[in-house]
Poly(A) polymerase (Ilex paraguariensis), 337 residues
Amino acid sequence: MAIASGLGFACRPHHFPIRSPLRHCVISKVRPSTIAAIETFNEPESLYVKDNTNHDSVSPNGKLMESDRKAPKWKKLGSKDIGISTSMIARPTRVVLNGLKRKGYEVFLVGGCVRDLILGRTPKDFDVITSAELKEVMRTFSRCEIIGRRFPICHVHIDDSIVEVSSFSTCATKSGRSFSLAFERPFGCDQKDYVRWKNCLQRDFTINGLMFDPYAKIVYDYMGGLEDIKKAKVQTIVPASFSFLEDCARILRAVRIAARLGFRFSKETAQAVKNLSCSVLKLDKGRLLMEMNYMLAYGSAEASLRLLWRFGLLDILLPIQLHFAGSIFCAPYFSET
């Protein structure tokens, strides 16, 4: 593939002292400038953590089937209790949040930025979701454009930064998943909770299914994301085989997240990554290049390459590098228990 020759990396065979990303952890008080304020416990190293979730609600053709699958017990927590301060939010994002809030719209931070804030990390970007229609977002900010045909969002330009803003109304229509059949609505959630829950249900991994209201200072966890952060686990929200068939780029995203955060895959997610690894070739070369650039950036290139090798993705994406570095990755680190 053309991408193989276009993506090189410096590989020094004598220096691969990777710190193990396979950890079991609990969140303690978050301190700035730490990858996560966590305490680690000694336990056998393995590629994945035990997964007790029943994901038998997928038919052979990858469609969600009607089942009695229950949603995790959802939590509503004070942001200060888990170490989040609004001062951690970048200024351009605060400008967007304040602009929409002043007009009476609900605004939340959602996805990986909430996860990173909980871990005491600086998010590379902040995703905003609002009760406003995208056209209302356009009217609120002078430098704003709607991009994307299939999944339209707003790009709001603040100074030299771009803040991505999505709408609950747009997100509600973009997914083909049957919420009422496949998942049980959490007990005790009102209509507003239901709207937030449906949006979180559309996301990729439980640790990305968190929503933060910076004004009420509340974090909503409908998908069990906080528990998986404690366990340092990457697990899909819907059954992994269905999730990766729905969007094969999630396979690369799973590797990137696990490598960057030092997390493990759930057993079911790991198996789906193995089984569906070749499906990433469905992505166009531009998307593959973008995903690989993300993966090899932010100081996580070594861990990413190890995981790509372990799951057979290195041979698919970077065969030239595999020829030179494959033997280096053979280490006890990868033994499964």
